[in-house]
Design goal:
This protein is an alpha+beta fold. About 45% of the residues lie in helices and about 15% in strands. The N and C termini lie far apart (about 85 Å).
């Protein structure tokens, strides 16, 4: 007979069917209970390292089954459940000639099960391939290994488990155990979407002045999540008080079971460090979601003079059209690194074309820019013509607006922020939002403490270094 699956919810076989005569024959009576004086109670904290004693009581049948499973793994034997119903659990060794046996019966008027028969001696040798090693047991036993390191590699986890229990664990078992452990630690994605409305309300109560908007769609009478916008009051005030008026915009894909896109806007603080402003979680990256996100940002930051602000992006899908609707008077820069990639895809590859592009991008005057474009035209007329529909104020310093006081050519602030939150992008929505919130809160406090303890004078450290470097030239 094959061993009974400890994690299975399948119906029992004909051997497990119990008739009324058998139940009366094996029912534990109060007189039988007197036979065992002061029976020990199983310590649930020792469920993964059980020590059985005849007469021992177990709080539930599930606790007894888990203890039996742990015993099978620790002794490296295959155990099977030959009877498993509401009032009794009979366990035997899978080897037919082995005398090891264990019978537990339900006590009257209680959910407690008591060990009524126990022969601890095995006449069979231990085995490395123990069939009682199940995914559920592994996920519960080793969930702590993923609590501090959710990105722990399955290969290393599998080797650690094999060295610990000295039993075979397949790659699929290790992978499924990791998935179940993370689900226990972080919660079910479906359940988190159901709790999202309560989470948003709690965010509003604990962060006065913050803007948190939750959108939903009604599909066939069923309410479904659509979008979430978050801009904390502390970040909003910090940007308006001290940051430059240049904002990087970017989007990155989420890696959870339901996908989605995380839209972010990141500014630059007085020390040339990234300064997160707001983020949004949407189902798809398209013109409508970008327009909604940028409009919410415009109202949130109370931007009444859009021409004084500059936005930088990588030309995401639908973003240009959204900017034309939300910020028609603002300057819009494109990341030169992505511009160069498009330049290469157009057929203009090689170091000479790359250097010509970057020289034109770094030109500080309109005359210098014209000279650099002449040099590019000497390399290739088609290469110079490729920039005809790309205005210089979108990618060259020579034509940048003076309102933002920033000559940034790359959208590194957004790329760096997306890299910082990489560990959060594969988590369920509430867990991810909390991870990002805690990251932003810690970052603000750490920068505040650093500035208070280390910075001397009115200028920030990076600005001092830049001025010294410029003065030497």
């Amino acid at each position: 007979m094959a061993p009974f699956d400890l994690n299975s919810d399948e119906e029992y076989s004909e051997d497990d069917v119990v008739n009324e005569y058998e139940i009366e024959e094996h029912r534990v009576s109060e007189d039988d209970d007197d036979e065992v004086s002061n029976p020990p109670v199983f310590n649930s904290s020792m469920v993964y390292d059980p020590n059985f004693v005849l007469g021992m009581k177990f709080g539930t049948k599930a606790e007894f089954r888990k203890a039996v499973q742990s015993h099978a793994i620790s002794t490296k034997r295959n155990l099977k459940f030959v009877k498993n119903d509401k009032i009794r659990v009979y366990v035997r060794c899978n080897e037919s000639d082995c005398s090891w046996r264990m019978n537990a019966l339900k006590m009257p008027k209680e959910d407690t099960f008591q060990l009524r028969e126990y022969n601890p001696n095995h006449s069979c040798p231990p085995t490395f391939h123990v069939k009682n090693v199940k995914t559920g047991w592994l996920s519960e036993r080793y969930a702590h290994k993923f609590q501090s390191d959710p990105n722990r590699h399955v290969k290393g986890f599998r080797l650690d488990v094999i060295n610990d229990i000295r039993c075979h664990v397949s790659k699929d078992q290790a992978y499924r155990a990791k998935v179940k452990a993370l689900k226990m630690l972080e919660g079910s994605p479906d359940a988190q979407y159901c709790k999202l409305w309560a989470y948003v309300e709690e965010l509003r109560n604990s962060n006065p002045g913050s803007t948190i908007m939750l959108g939903s769609d009604n599909e066939n009478g069923e309410i479904r999540f659509s979008r979430l916008y978050v801009c904390f009051d502390a970040l909003k005030k910090g940007f308006l008080l001290g940051c430059r008026r240049i904002i990087g915009v970017d989007g990155c894909h989420l890696k959870g079971p339901y996908g989605g896109v995380l839209l972010t806007v990141v500014g630059t603080d007085p020390n040339n460090n990234l300064y997160p402003i707001a983020y949004a979680i949407v189902c798809k990256e398209m013109r409508e979601t970008w327009e909604w996100f940028l409009t919410a940002l415009k109202l949130d930051l109370e931007i009444v003079r859009p021409h004084e602000y500059t936005f930088m992006s990588d030309k995401q899908k639908g973003l240009i059209q959204a900017f034309e609707e939300a910020f028609p008077d603002s300057e819009h820069r494109f990341c030169v690194r992505h511009l160069h990639n498009n330049f290469k895809n157009a057929g203009f590859r090689g170091i000479s074309f790359k250097n010509a592009l970057w020289k034109a991008a770094r030109a500080t005057t309109e005359g210098e820019f014209a000279d650099r474009m002449k040099e590019m035209r000497q390399l290739s007329e088609n290469a110079a013509n490729w920039f005809d529909d790309k205005p210089p104020n979108q990618w060259s310093r020579s034509h940048f607006s003076e309102h933002n006081k920033c000559d940034m050519l790359l959208n590194n602030v957004c790329e760096s922020f997306n890299s910082c939150i990489l560990d959060a992008r594969d988590k369920p929505i509430i867990t991810m939002s909390e991870w990002i919130r805690e990251f932003l809160m810690k970052r603000l406090q750490e920068n505040r403490d650093k500035a208070q303890s280390r910075w001397k004078g009115r200028l920030c450290p990076k600005i001092k270094k830049f001025l010294k470097k410029t003065r030497r030239k």
